[in-house]
Amino acid sequence: MTSSHSFRLRILRSGSSGNAIFLEAAGTRLIIDVGLPAEVMARELDSIPGASPITAILLTHEHDDHAKGAGALSRLLDAPVLANAGTLAAAGDLLAGVSTERFVTGVPFRVGGVQVEAFPVPHDAVEPVGFVVSDNGGRMVIATDLGGVTDDLLARARDADALILEANYDLRLLSVSPYPWFLKNRILSPTGHLSNDAAARAVVEVASDRPQTVFLVHLSDINNLTPLARDTVQWALEREGIAAVRVEAVRPNGTSPLWEMQ
Ligand SMILES: [Zn+2]
Ligand SMILES: [Zn+2]
């Protein structure tokens, strides 16, 4: 098919100090989460050939590391911010004077040439969601932040061409880390963050015979190691004899290469 059916994806930043994803499909260019200052975002986007104009900015939830730059970037790029009612209300001041559009969690909607569906994830925000973005050529699933993997997520991620999944911590590193207990308990809670082991189980569960790419994101720089997150998922796949899944772990506060699916 024509190049308009190719997916392009780049994790612009990943981790507790800021998250943002660039995603392009069917000529529609989306930013998912803006946990960085708008000027930094603009610089990152400049490094991607043909990354403008941005069609829309989507938010998973209102936490600062996902939303703090959304209003400023919206004004800078003249792109609307799309989120559900809970996130729009909770983001409040951040989005003052910004063009916003509301979607309903669970109800598919179109943005330009792609279909998007937001689905609920368990996390300690007002109305946190993951996204399925699809066109005729492919399907991509984004799930961060989340305290556990739901059957709903597994069903949506099965056979996806790309899965962007949180792998926040290694349980052993978290247990010996200098984090205070209240913070450890928050991370471990069913509405906190996802462990490498839980991410690995999910990836095994959704793998198919088709080539799939998994991006592990939101790695903690204290409670995780980039090679450990990748190997935990890779070993789980190897134990099950699954060879078609490629695993990329994005280092804390790092950026992924530009990924393209033809
Ligand atoms: Zn969060
Ligand atoms: Zn986060």
From TrEMBL:
SUPFAM superfamilies: Metallo-hydrolase/oxidoreductase. Keywords: Hydrolase. InterPro entries: Metallo-B-lactamas, RibonucZ/Hydroxyglut_hydro, WalJ/YycJ-like. Signal peptide: none annotated. Residues 17-193 form the Metallo-beta-lactamase domain. The keyword Transferase does not apply. GO terms for molecular function: hydrolase activity. The keyword Zinc does not apply. This is MBL fold metallo-hydrolase. It comes from Candidatus Segetimicrobium genomatis.
